[in-house]
Amino acid sequence: MTERFQRGLARQQEIGGAGPRRRAYDALADVAPDLSRLAVEFAYGDIHSRPGLDAGQRELVILGALIATGGVEPQLEAHIGSALGAGLTPRAVVEAVMQAIPYAGFPRVFAAMAIVRRVFAERNLLPLQ
């Protein structure tokens, strides 16, 4: 394991583990075995580990980008969990998703909010207080 990979794994653990990511990585291991290593090294070892923003702020940026991109439900699910793991409150996650309406549109925000609901339900965070 490279230093970048170790740093990336440590960052993933810090924000709530690699559970959903591991499932996505494992699902593609037979066709693209290096993909997960590259994701861990680059996205987490290089980018997510940079100074300047805390983990929660980074997750807010990532949520906005994923919502705007659309069609990335597994990644969105993983990063909703990471946002909670980074210390964001459930209400802050909902507000971040709502903030995307003027930029990403209602259909993408409704789709993202359905994933938020599923993640919150799995973590017994419903109903929101």
UniProtKB/TrEMBL annotation:
Superkingdom classification of source: Bacteria
Gene3D superfamilies hit by this protein: AhpD-like (1.20.1290.10)
Pfam family, any one: CMD
All residue ranges annotated as the Carboxymuconolactone decarboxylase-like domain in the record: 33-117
PANTHER family for the chain: 4-CARBOXYMUCONOLACTONE DECARBOXYLASE FAMILY PROTEIN, CARBOXYMUCONOLACTONE DECARBOXYLASE-LIKE DOMAIN-CONTAINING PROTEIN
Descriptive protein name: Carboxymuconolactone decarboxylase family protein
Organism: Amycolatopsis thermalba
Organism classification: Bacteria, Bacillati, Actinomycetota, Actinomycetes, Pseudonocardiales
